[in-house]
Each structure stands twice: as C-alpha cells, then as structure tokens.
Amino acid sequence: MSKLLIVGTVAFDAIETPFGKTDKILGGAATFIGLAASQFNIDTAAVSVVGGDFPQEYLDLLSKKNINISGIEIIKEGKTFFWSGRYHNDMNTRDTLVTELNTLANFNPVVPENYSNAQVVMLGNLHPLVQTSVLNQMTTKPKLVILDTMNFWMDCALDDLLNIIKRIDVITINDEEARQLTGEYSLVVAARKIHKMGPKYVVIKKGEHGALLFHNDSMFYAPALPLEEVFDPTGAGDTFAGGFAGYLAKTQDYSFENMKNAVIYGSTLASFCVEKFGTERMQKLSQDDVAYRLKEFEQLTQFNIELSQKNTV
Amino acid sequence: MSKLLIVGTVAFDAIETPFGKTDKILGGAATFIGLAASQFNIDTAAVSVVGGDFPQEYLDLLSKKNINISGIEIIKEGKTFFWSGRYHNDMNTRDTLVTELNTLANFNPVVPENYSNAQVVMLGNLHPLVQTSVLNQMTTKPKLVILDTMNFWMDCALDDLLNIIKRIDVITINDEEARQLTGEYSLVVAARKIHKMGPKYVVIKKGEHGALLFHNDSMFYAPALPLEEVFDPTGAGDTFAGGFAGYLAKTQDYSFENMKNAVIYGSTLASFCVEKFGTERMQKLSQDDVAYRLKEFEQLTQFNIELSQKNTV
User: Could you report the per-residue pLDDT of A86-132, keeping only the tens digit for each?
Assistant: First the structure.
C-alpha cells in the first residue's frame, strides 16, 4: 500500500460568510488534505503541531479516517494555531480577522520513522523552511513531492521558497499567486516560468473557474463544478490538493495523463468541501457521493468531437 | 443545405490594446458571426446596414466567405456605425471611447425573401426591437433562434428585451449580464431564472474562463483555451456565437448533446479571433487550423474517468 505523508497546519478556524458564522471549528491545511486523501484507502500520515487546547475528539476523528497522527505533536502548555476570516458577498475574497500562530510559531516538524519512505509527500502551505525540513527527513527519495504555498511566503520568505521549489515535482498555486511569483499576467507564460524554477508540473487553481495543469507544452483544464450555492470556501484549495495527492498515491501512476484524473478527483472533492462550514461535509462524504459527482463532472466536461469532425470541417 | 440568418452590426472599429492600436477597421457583430459561421459551408445571410463610407472591399470580403449580403442595406448619404475602445492591461475590461450610431440609429432590418425560411436565426446584439422585427419577418418557424444581448439593453430597453427573450430558444450572455438580468450571483441560479423567462438553453460566456451551457438541470462547461497572449478580445463573443450557430445549422441536430459540440466549436473559433486585431485572424483561418485546435481542445479537457474509477473508489 502506498504511503502519503502530509505536512500542514491542524488548526482552529472561525468563519463568517453571508450565510452565517461559526465558533472555533476544526480546520487547517493538513486536516483538509488528510480528509480528502482518506477517500483513497492509502496509508496516510499527517505531520503537524497543536496545543493542549486541541480536543481529543478532533484527533480521534482524523484517526478514524485512517490518518496516522503520530506525527502531530501536542504541546500541552501551548495553544493551537487559530485563524479567523470573513468572506465577502462574492465568496471569492475574504478578510483575515485574526491570525494567532501559537504553537505554530516554533513548529519543528518530525517525520515519523515509518513514513520517511513515503512514496508521495504533500507539503501543505507553511513556512518554506518547515516544508524543507520535512523533505530533508525523507530517507528514501519520494516518487512525487507536491508543494502548496501562498503569496504570504513570496512576500516574506521568497529565497527559502525558491530553494524548496527547486526540489519538488508539482506546485499547486492560485492564479494571482502564479502572477505574483513570475510577474506574468498570462497563466501560460507564468507556468512556463515556474517550470524553469524546478517543478515539472504546475497546477494553477482558479477557484470557481477551475484548475489548470501544465507540463512542458501540454495543458489540462478542469472546470470547477458550478454550484447553486458556495457556503464556505475555506479549505477548498487544500481539499483539491489532498484529492490530487491521494489519487496519485493510490494509483502510483505519476504520468501527465493520470494527473488529469487526479485534477478531476481534486476538483470533485473540493466541490463537496464548499457545501458546508469547515470540514463538516468532508467528514460525512461517502464513496457513493464521490462516484456520483465524478459522473456529473464527466457530463459537465466530456463531448464527442469525433462525431463533430465527421459532420463538419 | 441549411440556412443561417444573421442580424447584427457591420461596422468600423478602432481598437487600442497594450499591444498597439488600429485605425478604423472592419468590425461589427454580424461580421464576426458571419466569418465564424463561414467555416461550416452553410447558406448564410447577414442583415445589417452601413453607410456610403463603407468600403466595397469589405463587402466583397464577406461575399467571398459565402455570406449573402443582399440583406445589408447601404445608405449612401449615411455613415457606418463606428465604435472605438481601449482595453486595459488585463484585457478583460475596456473603456468605450467613441460610439457613433450613424445609420444604425434608424435601422429597419429587411430579411431577404429567400432567407425568411432559414432554419437557424442568430439575433446578434442590437436593440431588442430590431431583433424582434427580424423574427417577425420569418415566414417559416425557425428550428432554432439564438439571441445575443448586452447590459446596455437591460438598462434602457428591458421590457422589449424580455419580450423577445420569451420567443427564443438559446440566449448567449456574459456572466455579469446574467447576474444583472436576474439579480442572482450564482450562475446556476441565474440560468434557472433565465430558463423561466423563455429560453430552453442558456449559454453564459465567461471570457478567459470559458463558457457554460445550461438546459433544465444539465450543464456543460467548455473552458477557453489558455493563451500565451490575448492580442485583441474584440469580437470574441460574436465569434463564439457564430461558431455555435453555424455548427448547429450545419448538423441540424439541436439536442443538448450536440450543443456541447457547438460550444466547443464556438470556443475554438473564439480562441483564434483574439490572436490578431479585429477580423484579421478570422479572415485567414483554414479548416486545418480549426481541426488542429479542436484536437488541442480535446487534449485540454478530456480525461479517462473509467480508468480512475476502477483504480480507486
């Protein structure tokens, strides 16, 4: 069975959207990535840190989803990372209200020994030096290293970020961040510049407009499923990454063609994530739900161009 | 052979983009629609009006593309509709610099007798009463009526617009206009509301993010081809509509499944339109160019989900 190692935050989120607000609920990149990857029956472990205030029931929840939590350090006297944000009416933009790093401020990740040979490593959005430390602890060269990051690290730790980007296979990044990282407006040109920084595969996330996968001169474009209502976008990008990484770890096929499927799985899982606050929808997701929505994605995007070529030009 | 009747502007455009600017060049909705539809070897006619200043060579150009111009009235003492605009650096927004209606102000469209039985009618963006007049002149009920419109008519001729919308089969509209027309942010909800206004099929154009086709509870999402450089977006929406209408007129299959192909053809042709100023690229487009890019669209969007389902959930 393939192993997937995840590093990322395990956190408290408090969220306000036009539809309502939450108290402190379960959040964090590693949480969303892990819940998405748990769909694939692979051997998944999360590396993170929480404080003594983190409820045992949340840890139990991750364990029940077959996410190994031996790499989640609990600092009894510390507090868990807390983020609070308010989404605007368009649900595409948000204001951060509170960021309390707490135990995350001095996070020193330790990869559990029996995961230092994981085939797939998913470096969730964190300080690039933390991501680097995890990669340095791998005793066997992973088959695939995926990195997610954000504009914050481009602003305040660009050199560290560029150093780790050199060493990875896939970067997932949103459109505005790709533009910031490269100074290019065209995503095609931006992806080409990012290729030159190291990653052979570049995934550009465009939120409600879907996701693009670039590899050399090849492109793949998976739309997001148009939804009646986006209830809470928090975690959608991490859920996408978790679906992408989990699918590749499961299939152990790291070709561009198979990455197309991984992008579709990521988009499918992300479409569930936004239906409820926080991790609520992902906790209750069944394999039938996923199979049904994959069919919807197929109907949404697939066409029969053979027919059309015969009939016309 | 199927007949396609187009009504729309035939005009002069002057365009400024970050890449350069043009003098008065050939433009107009009917021009772009006609050039796109000319790919399909159908019997196409354009209904429009121009002034005595309109060069014979432009009319000859349309004729050479097998667009019947007997419905293009020439008002010798009048001037041709003129639009001038400047695109911003993102190429998604623009300022209108000049709009001179000229002969268009009193445009009284006359459908050529031998096109009043056209199977497909494409009502290009114009005053809704002009669109209505064309539809009223049809002596045989068309198999398919497609309407394109814009926010300007929602602001100043909403009742007329709603009256013609009741009578059509397909509306093509951009995302912001769909939101304005319905007061709904979600495009899924907006499309449902537009269905209730009349059209069984709703196409929402999202520019660089592609186009959505809605029919009852079914959806189809065609991405736009990501381009290194968008040189001039003028006419892309009309080119999309022309490809969509032309393909349906050619195949005479007005099913939802076939409309998916029509959306792909529309997107494919629009991806050429933006590569040069005005109609320049569309004038020189070969069937090989189109066939090659259709293959690119296939690679961009198609995946093998059967494989992925076997391997995972």
Answer: 998 777 788 999 999 999 999 999 999 999 999 999 999 999 999 99
Contacts of A189 in chain B (CB under 8 A): 228-229
Backbone phi and psi for residue A250, each to the nearest 5 degrees, phi listed first: -65, -50
**A312 domain residue, yes or no:** no
DSSP at B226 = P
Query: How many angstroms separate the CA of residue B290 from the nearest CA in chain A?
Result: 8
Q: Where are the alpha helices (DSSP H) in A146-286?
A: 151-156, 158-165, 175-182, 187-197, 236-251, 256-273, 280-283
What's the ipTM? 0.90
CATH number at residue A85: 3.40.1190.20
Check B247 against A312: CB less than 8 A apart: yes
Provide the domain limits for residue A147. 3-302
Alpha carbon of A94: minimum distance to chain B alpha carbons (Å): 17
- Averaged over successive runs of 10 residues, the pLDDT of chain B (313 residues) comes to 96 93 96 97 97 98 98 98 91 88 96 98 98 98 97 96 98 96 95 98 95 96 92 95 98 96 96 96 95 94 68 45
The reply to whether residue B291 touches residue A304, judged by beta carbons under 8 angstroms, is no
Establish, for the pair of chains A and B, how many residue pairs have beta carbons separated by less than 8 Å: 138
Contact by Cβ (8 Å): A184, A214 = no
Flag whether A105 is in a domain.
Answer: yes
pLDDT tens across A191-227, in order?
Answer: 999 999 999 999 999 999 999 999 999 999 999 999 9
Q: At what angle do helices A158-165 and A187-197 cross, to 10 degrees?
A: 80
